[in-house]
Structures are given as C-alpha cells and as structure tokens.
Amino acid sequence: MTPEPLPTCQADMKYDILARAGFARRGNLHLPHSIVETPVFMPVGTQGTMKGVVPEQLVAMDCRILLCNTYHLGHRPGHERVKAAGGLHKMMNWDRSILTDSGGFQMVSLSKLMTVDENGVNFESPHTGEMMALPPEKSIEIQQALGADIMMQLDHVIHVLTTGDIVKEAMHRSIRWLDRCKVAHTRDDQAMFPILQGGLNLELRKECAEEMAKRAKVGIAIGGLSGGEEKDHFWRVVAACCAALPPHLPRYVMGVGFPVDLVICSLLGADMFDCVYPTRTARFGTAMVRRGGLMQLNQKRYKEDFLPIDDKCECNTCKNYSRAYLHSIVGKETVGCHLVSVHNIKHQLDLMRDVRQAIQSNSVEQFLKQFLHDYYGPIQSEEPSKQDSLEVREVPQWVRDAVNHMGYKLDF
Hints:
alpha/beta; TIM Barrel; 5-stranded parallel β-sheet; 4-stranded parallel β-sheet
C-alpha cells in the first residue's frame, strides 16, 4: 500500500477519526512531518533535546511527535540561531513532528520572575537576569522561527487554584490574545492550537470552548490543569471540555503524564498529552510499570534481582539490563538515568498504543478493568514470607466516579 502523503500546508492538515468507543476516539492527525496516531503521549524535549535520549532511540520506539519549549529555546540558543540552522527539526536531527508550547506556562512556573498585562508577559531570565517581553505576536514569531508542526497560542495562564474575577479575566484575555496570534501567524505549514482557560469553573470553560472552537482550524488544547487541583475537579473539567468541543478537532490536555490520568482522559475523549514525568522520575531511579505503577530501583530489594524491569517490555533497557544492574548505577552513573528514561518513555508510548487498540476493538471496559487491577493491585514479592505484608491499594474514588460517568462498571 502506498503511504498517504503528508500535508504541505495548514489547509491539508486534518484529523481523521478511525474508531469510537463511548466518549473515546482513535484517530490520525496528519501533520507535515508525520501522521500522529491518537490518543498520543508526547515526550518533552524542553531545550530541543530529550534528557538522556537521542532522536534515533525515539524513532526506534515509533515516537511520532514530541514537545519543545518556546520560552527556554527563545533564551538558549535563541530562535534566530535555530532558524539559521534550518529550524528545530534540522538542528536537533528529528524528522518527525514537533509541538512547541507558547511560553505561557512560565507564567506559573516562573511566577516570581514575571508580570502580565494586556500587552503580554514580561519575564526576568532565571539564567541571566535579562528582561524578556513576550506579547502574543512575539510568541508566534519565535515559534515560526523554530518551525514546529504545531504552535500554541500565548494564553494568560493562572494557577489552577486561583479564584475570583481574575479567572474570568484571564479566560477572556486568552481569547483576545488568540486573535492577535492569528494575525501574527503567517506560515501556512504550521498549525496553531487555541488553549481553553477558565480554571475549575465549568461554565467559563464551556464559554471559552465555544469562542475558541470558532477560531480553531486543526486542533485545540485544554490548558490550566495538572497544577495541584483535586482529581475530582480535574476529570470533571476534562470531561466538560471534551463534551463542549466539536468532534473534528483533536483535544490536547496539556501537562498530563501520570498513567492513570492518561487512560482516564483518553477514555473521556481527549486525544493528546505531554509531560516531563517519564524522564524526570527516571532521574530519581524510578521505573514506570503496569503492575503497581512505580518501581523504585534504588531500593535494596533489587540489589540481587536479575530480572528486567518488565519482561513484557520491548525497550532496549528491558531486553539487555537487569534490575540489579540498574540498582547499582542509578543515582551514581548518568547511564542509569538514560536507561531508565528509555524504558519510561517506551512504557508511556506502549500504554497509549494499548488504549488505541482497546478503542479500535471496542474492548475499552475490559482494558480499563485490567489496567486498574494491575496498577492498584498488590505487588507480589518474590519472597513468600513478605507477600502477606504488602499493602493493597484501593482504586481512588475520583477514578471510580470518572469510570461511572463513562458508563463502565468496575467489579472490584
């Protein structure tokens, strides 16, 4: 079969829904550098590099899209230098899709170093102390120079637990800034996603969704979450936003990376996710696993454990290295972080592959039950004397509520 040609301009970028199961969708997002299968997890290469992992390894995992950070790349090495190098794809040796964020998240992460008004954001560099003005137009200018397949609008981001009039003000400002971004957006080979705001207020979220959807051409994002809010609020906002958005747009929930969150949000109707979690947790010697969620490889119990992290995982780490070896080097040798990062990224990509397959085969309820049983079930020690002392974790109530909202039943 001849592969479908990739789009060359925004008019050709499209989202095809291939299967549905309840609220969930499986689809293909056609972008200039790859066809991205959704639901999809996007690893984060903040400075144009995945920490401890080279692009060739991501290709071997069939990673189709990753995220890079506009604010940080704008500082180092600078978007002019990236443009002179032929764009971010060429500079970092990555021929698949890239999404760049707008710099808006730094309003929260660097809140002590910034001010915001109607014109835009003013940052003080955490590296040099240099002031940087970032109006919506500048954000688009930087992202166009970087050359990502998907750019994000600059939105007014506030901490998710903020209350009062500022929540509505930030939401309406985000809409106004989107209109300014659209005027500044001149490259036809890059898509631009609006970003929904509105805090935890479902009515503001719906109002914002209605306005943003009118302006969205290729896809749309749900912003302002994963900042410490109660999970019961988190899933309800995602569900409300997905329900309010038109089906032809892929829905990108920003900053989501915990496996349970990925599964629940996918089944609520979201399509795209990103987070630094897989590589950040690897730096602490923690491997992600289906059974029990996390494996702390620095624990003494793994000192003489010669099994792989996961005998079902096909990543290079699990094929070639034991838990005992990783235990001996994590936190001591940089290769330890590298090997665990490779596994963790592959774990996330495989999880999303399994979600897609469950949607395609209309077996979501069976997949969900097995996933939750494994994730929250007891981890059986290889030492029989310790098996009875292991704690059995309960499936959180917010997960049960979300599953009930989907129309599925858990029998445990």
